[in-house]
Amino acid sequence: MEKVLSPIAKAIRERRSIKTGYTAKPVTEEVVKEILSDAVWAPNHGLREPWRFLFVPTERKEEFVEEAVQWFPAGMQENRRNYFSQPSAFLIVVMKEDPRQKQWDEDYGAVSCMIQNFQLLAWEQKLGVVWKTNPHNYDPKAREALGVQSGEKIVAFLHMGYFEEAPAPRPRTPIEEKFLVYKK
């Protein structure tokens, strides 16, 4: 007998990272704000809400791409121009870094939960998202250009765009292979 999935379980299992194949439909500020207004209900210790966002909408993307390619050596710029030109828009997620390790870990977990919420909510609207953590997230030139301050971390470049076709699901390891019960 096939397991009947709840709507939440179904959304979690069906969501895919959309890396290519974006349509020309623009990603608007209004849609991103609407999704974020629900995504930020992620669990976060002490309601620190350790995130902030920089949105690059479709109509500003070309200008952004021309700035972004300058972060790279001349020999890589054309490759990076092609890379940054594929998504319709970007959402850069920045975390305030707490100097205390426990709080830093809690905040990173909270931001990660918020990003997963964002991806699920975007999926519901057929807005594809892929979470990128590339080396330029740490590049001082990129950080300066994006207004990322000392004591802040770029957690994600979320590449976004509407899509026609989702990739096929990839199998997951059966939970029995990763689950233990404590025994003394």
TrEMBL record:
Taxonomy, superkingdom: Bacteria
Return the Pfam families for the record.
Answer: Nitroreductase (PF00881)
Q: Does the keyword Iron apply?
A: no
Free-text comment on the cofactor: Binds 1 FMN per subunit.
Top enzyme class: oxidoreductase
EC identifiers of the protein: 1.-.-.-
InterPro entries linked to this entry: NAD(P)H_nitroreductase, Nitroreductase, Nitroreductase-like, YdjA-like
Please give the Gene Ontology molecular function terms for this protein: oxidoreductase activity
Cofactors, names only: FMN
Keywords (A to Z) from UniProt: Flavoprotein, FMN, NAD, NADP, Oxidoreductase
Coiled coil (residue ranges): none
Positions contributing to FMN binding: 15-17, 45, 131-133
Q: Does the keyword NADP apply?
A: yes
Q: Which residues does UniProt assign to the signal peptide? A: none
Domain Nitroreductase: residue ranges: 12-162
Q: Which family does it belong to?
A: Belongs to the nitroreductase family.
Record PANTHER family: NAD(P)H NITROREDUCTASE YDJA-RELATED
In its UniProt entry, what is this protein called?
A: Putative NAD(P)H nitroreductase
- Species the sequence originates in: Rossellomorea vietnamensis
